[in-house]
Amino acid sequence: MCRGAQHVVNRILPAADTILHDHRVKFTREDIDSSELDRRRALYGPLTEAVRELVDATIRTEVDESVIREVHAEVAAAAAKLRAKQLDGAFGLRFTTGGESFAWGNAGIGLRNALAPPLSVESDASGLHWTEVTLGAPYEGPPGLVHGGICALVLDHLLGTTASSIEPRFTGTLTLRYRRGTPLGRLRAEARITRNEGRKTVVNGTLSDAGGVTVEAEGIFIGPATATA
Ligand SMILES: CCCCCCCCCCCCCCCC(=O)SCCNC(=O)CCNC(=O)[C@H](O)C(C)(C)COP(=O)(O)OP(=O)(O)OC[C@H]1O[C@@H](n2cnc3c(N)ncnc32)[C@H](O)[C@@H]1OP(=O)(O)O
């Protein structure tokens, strides 16, 4: 998990059971240490990268029909092998014995989620939070442009992590202004807290390409009553 999110989780941990009970978040304490986590990271990370590659290759391939059929059978066989032993439901938010967190199914940052771009949030001492990401063919909406919902995913995650740098926060309201199409390719999103009122934190941010801002965002993030009680 990215540094910002780990900081949030460290704050959530003491109140986790209450928060999770209230919000039905799936939360698991695993009996593993950080070296085992590293071993699993090295195991699953490359698998997820290979699946991401497969998703992009599936969209863009122009090989012969016979090869498509062959690959279809191979992919179905691979999925059946993985299905032989499965979690009951989603991955949830997990912790090692040392309190390190891993949300490997998360749609924004999940190490085991090939749909995740994946995002990694950085921050500096001034309170600026940012993420840089390359969005390719799998994230297309209008031709050659990023899907509006994917822009929202990036901004929701970044603004949420920014809001949660003080206390854990859920997205209450997210308002986006799409100023122009966001081209597929390298992008940067930035965010800052602009207002803090008790359990409510307002965060403003932008998504930009090399030519400037494409999407402006404002989010109102709400802390669970139990986290600040
Ligand atoms: C915490 C554990 C996370 C674990 C993970 C860790 C990972 C760390 C990485 C973080 C990165 C996350 C980035 C993605 C973040 C999501 O994507 S979160 C998922 C999407 N959001 C949700 O599912 C939230 C669903 N909604 C809810 O759970 C509840 O409605 C809320 C938002 C917690 C508020 O419920 P509530 O506590 O009952 O609120 P309530 O007491 O009625 O109101 C409190 C105040 O908030 C205001 N308010 C309430 N709802 C709203 C709203 N929707 N809009 C605006 N204002 C509102 C009220 O007007 C009130 O204001 P005041 O009267 O005090 O001025």
UniProtKB/TrEMBL annotation:
SUPFAM superfamilies: Thioesterase/thiol ester dehydrase-isomerase (SSF54637)
Record's keyword annotation contains Membrane: yes
Subcellular localization, as worded in the UniProt entry: Cell projection, Ruffle membrane; Cytoplasm; Membrane
GO biological process: fatty acid metabolic process
Domain Thioesterase, residue spans: 144-215
EC code(s) of this entry: 3.1.2.2
Keywords tagged on the record: Apoptosis, Cell membrane, Cell projection, Cytoplasm, Fatty acid metabolism, Hydrolase, Lipid metabolism, Membrane, Transit peptide
Primary location: membrane
Domain of life: Bacteria
InterPro entries attached to this UniProt entry: HotDog_dom_sf (IPR029069), THEM4/THEM5_acyl-CoA_thioest (IPR052365), Thioestr_dom (IPR006683)
Catalyzed reaction equations: decanoyl-CoA + H2O = decanoate + CoA + H(+); dodecanoyl-CoA + H2O = dodecanoate + CoA + H(+); (9Z)-octadecenoyl-CoA + H2O = (9Z)-octadecenoate + CoA + H(+); (5Z,8Z,11Z,14Z)-eicosatetraenoyl-CoA + H2O = (5Z,8Z,11Z,14Z)-eicosatetraenoate + CoA + H(+)
Membrane-topology descriptor: Peripheral membrane protein
GO-annotated cellular components: cytoplasm; membrane
Record keyword Cell membrane present: yes
Gene Ontology terms, MF aspect: hydrolase activity
PANTHER family named among the record's database cross-references: ACYL-COENZYME A THIOESTERASE THEM4
Similarity remark: Belongs to the THEM4/THEM5 thioesterase family.
Name this polypeptide is given: Acyl-coenzyme A thioesterase THEM4
Organism whose genome encodes this protein: Rhodococcus tukisamuensis
